[in-house]
Amino acid sequence: MKILPDRYSSGPLLLVVSAAAGLAITLYHYMAPLTGVTETIGAGLVVFSTGIMLVAALIHPILPSGVMRKTEMFLILVDAICTMAAGYFLHEWLLMVAMAIALIGAVMSAFTGSATGGGKSASSQKTQGAAA
Known about the structure:
Elements: H1 10-31, H2 41-59, H3 67-89, H4 93-111, H5 122-131
Helix pairs in contact: 1-2, 1-4, 2-3, 3-4
């Protein structure tokens, strides 16, 4: 019995979990007193960008293959790299670790079978389409 559909394989799941962890880390540093970045504009922007990354990571596996899916993956990669740089400037080392894991998940999602429509090869999709 499968709990998650094929499209939520290890790459997209790793991306979602690390984006959620990054959002939790940035929210803590943004709201907790005496972190050094409490309620600053830069920390607020990082909270916003990690929230956008989480939404994009949740949406990515359900998108059909094509230009839209590849564009979203490119934007997720850019978001993870820039958020990692922001974590460096804000001295949020755990955020940098979370974004490194997000990059690993994004690369896994982009270069494995999960990026081509649910982890199925093109030939198996054609045979299923012909059988239906």
